[in-house]
Design brief:
It is built from six helices and two strands; from the N terminus they run αααααββα. α1 (about 10-25) crosses α2 (about 45-60), α1 (about 10-25) crosses α5 (about 120-130) and α3 crosses α6 (about 170-180). It is about 40% helix and about 5% strand. The structure holds zinc ion. Zinc ion (ZN) binds near residues 139, 157, 159, 160 and 162.
């Protein structure tokens, strides 16, 4: 369900903090549309660290594989990335069907190596928010509808204290892809 316990503002703040801690930078100078790689100097390995910090903060499991890898796995090698390492038209259709304008910059024939530079504070926050929005209506332990947060980040059951159980990032991506395919949005 779309939860309204953790706000987007709070998520963006948490992503800035995770990035600043990883890169030993200052969260206050980071802007939501900063590219992690181009503007903030992050390297590929830093993403693991940033994801780990976000997982710890929110009690979630971020996707281990980007959506393009899942497309290749589900629909066949070469579906998303061609033999020259360029993004296919089909990959762009999937990305548009999933993210719309929320994840700008994807275009057919772009080099796969350019994709990581498209990640910004805002798109990372969007990824976190998508997972938070898998919050079940009721507590998985006591069955009550009593989700709450004390710090604006961690959601727990106000009735029994159980931590919120979210879907993990990779499963969520697979579910979207299956749905996009079933809805015949991709030709
Ligand atoms: Zn409970």
């Amino acid at each position: 369900m779309t939860q309204n316990i953790v706000t987007e503002e709070k998520v963006i703040e948490a992503v800035k903090k995770a990035v600043a801690e990883t890169l030993s930078g200052n969260a206050e100078t980071i802007q939501p549309d900063n590219s992690l790689i181009k503007d903030l100097g992050a390297e590929s390995l830093d993403f693991l660290d940033i994801n780990y910090r976000l997982e710890q903060s929110f009690g979630i499991k971020m996707a281990r594989h980007f959506i393009l890898e899942h497309i290749e796995e589900m629909f066949g090698e070469g579906t998303a990335i061609d033999e020259n390492g360029l993004l296919t038209e089909k990959a762009v259709q999937f990305l548009k069907a999933r993210y719309g304008e929320a994840f700008p910059g994807f275009r057919a024939n772009m080099d796969i190596d350019e994709v990581p530079s498209l990640f910004t504070i805002r798109t990372m926050a969007g990824g976190v928010m998508d997972i938070l929005n898998t919050l079940p209506e009721k507590c998985t332990k006591c069955g009550n509808i009593a989700w709450k947060t004390d710090d604006g980040v961690r959601v727990i059951c106000g009735s029994c204290g159980e931590s919120a159980a979210y879907m993990n990032g990779d499963d969520l991506i697979k579910e979207w892809l299956t749905k996009i395919q079933a809805d015949n949005k991709i030709c």
